[in-house]
Amino acid sequence: MRTRTALFVVATAAAGLLSACGSSGEPTAKAQSFEEALGMDQDSMLAREAKVQEKIRTCMKAEGFEYIPVDPSQSNMQFKVGGPDSDDPAKLRKEGYGVTAMPKSVGAADRGTNPNDAIVEALSDADREAYEMALFGRTEEKGPDGGGAVIVRRTAGRKGDRGPGDEDTGCAGKAQREVPGGPEQFMDAMDELKERIGSDPRMVAVERAWKTCMSRSGYDWDTPGKIRDYLFGKLEAALGGQNGEIHFDPDMAENAAVTALHQEELAIAKVDADCRVKTKYQAITTKVRDEAQQRFLDEHPNLGK
Q1: Taking the domains of the chain in order of start, what are their residue ranges?
Q2: C-alpha angle with apex 104: 265 to 169, nearest 5 degrees?
Q3: Per-residue pLDDT reduced to its tens digit, 255-265
Q4: Buried-most residue among 1, 106, 139, 245 (CB within 10 A)?
């Protein structure tokens, strides 16, 4: 068994670089990315994750278990925030969206990098279940939500100071909540920014043009981002995942379903890349995103401070 590494990957659409301005409107000495301005750049978030890992160790010790902090710099973690999908067409044609490359890359990254695997393997089945519950909390399937999806809730099921009905995400979730600066802190702000970008008339027009172009090749997605949702869904099915959670195993990367999905991914990506070029999708979305991000930073000068 391979325990789930208690690292949280934030994977959203890529953000462009912005020249950060002070309140006077004068540019700073060093151009900052949008992530850096919010304190959510790679270095800042890896430093935060190191604190999270120490919190997990302390929490797990209180639960009676050993936990060795995972070095986030040795993981496959990437932190990016931003607006609409902005894949470069040339890269799309060559590599696709990177979805079907995940089993191989994540499996390779996971191999030998989680020092807690040996701890879990040495436990009895009962203790192993207790360890997982202490680390991640208990999941309970609540059945279909009417649209075919399965609702998964975290439920209190171990010792602690929670009252009835309180969310239980184990030591990993508790540590994420206790260390300042995590993705959840910016959730509302990012939703606001995403809505602002998506409702811009230029975005509405270019996405409509992109959709029309894709439909000529038999594809029916409203935005490029929906393609990844589709591919992740098929990858989950191919690897036997459920409830939106995939447990990667390096051997799974070579199965026939993943190989077939890879070919489908590349075929879609080629059509997508062609449509982006024809509609000037990249130039328009980059301009809209950069303007919205700069305006957002001007309106929220203390966000991330």
Answers
A1: 10-115+182-299
A2: 100
A3: 788 889 999 99
A4: 106
